[in-house]
Amino acid sequence: MSTHAEMKALVWLGPEDMQLRAVPLPEPAPSEVLIETSAIGICGSELSGYLGHNSLRRPPLIMGHEASGRILQTGEQTTFADGTAGQVGMRVTFNPLIVCGTCDRCRAGYTNLCRQRQLVGAHRPGAFAFYVAVPAAQCWPAPENLSDTAASLAEPLACAIHAVTLAHVSSGDSLLILGAGPIGLFCLAYARLLGITEIIVSDMLPTRLAIAQQWGASATLNARTSDVVQSIQQICGGGAMAVIDAVGATTTRAQAVQAVVPGGRVVFIGLHDEESPLATNYLIRQEVTITGCFAYTHHDFGIAVAMLKAGKLRPEADWLEERPLAEGPAAFAELVKGTAKGTKIVLRTK
């Protein structure tokens, strides 16, 4: 590729300032591949970045870490995450969390907590562009029967899989999910796949609650019109066995602690508020376990890819909206304001 070649990309320039610009085409390293992007999802963490509230993201920056596309150029090392030999023309999705594999956290199996971790779209240029360079070892093949948009969902689905895994729920347990955004819905889908039948989902938007019902929630709660904690006490008879907070607001964190059964587990995955006061004495007396949840492991990502390949999660029109990459600035603005029609927006380059 010519060093003078350019491409179009969404460049975040500062709080609520994102523009489509011409930027240099990425030059992949020998261990990397150049991907011609097809579908790139907008993540909630990128919305906080767009507002200037995320310390990981500093302008000017090309965000985007939920993506799929086709290999345009390979380097000297082309082995994919599943052992497949990468070749030009192959369709892929990729794990954007790059880890060292050698630090104490990686050796202990906590690759998501790698001391040297880097995220595509935060520490290095991301996929809100026509091309992105990523290590070949981060790529997973996408079969031809899997749509580009479905393949781009592997990363957020992996986040949800990790959260449900940390909740330690099993058949017969009750699970409360706070928030019916993409991560909350994906938690619901994976919990259902594990055989969990009593899953209550709370949100403030009736449209999202309707989707949760369609996806198999046993009950839904409108947090705007009902007392979530009181309702859960009645539905589950003392509290849910586990709670996943997929919002991360001070209100939902407090609800999670109060809604879980004594001795139960709360998983915090939402990153809305930086700090939240908690009823610590109550936590102690009820022996509530709080677990933070960050990203996913290599194993979680593999499960997500397999789940998508098996058709267990499909991008249906009632919750997902596709738009051209050029409409990215408007999509970000609408998601922040809460006026977007879709629960999830995926930007398309073709």
From TrEMBL:
SUPFAM superfamilies in the cross-refs: GroES-like, NAD(P)-binding Rossmann-fold domains
Keyword tags: Metal-binding, Oxidoreductase, Zinc
Domain spans labelled Enoyl reductase (ER): 14-347
Keyword Nucleotide-binding set for record: no
SMART domains per the UniProt record, alphabetical: PKS_ER
GO terms, molecular function: metal ion binding; oxidoreductase activity
Protein origin, superkingdom: Bacteria
Protein name, per record: Alcohol dehydrogenase GroES domain protein
Organism name: Ktedonobacter racemifer DSM 44963
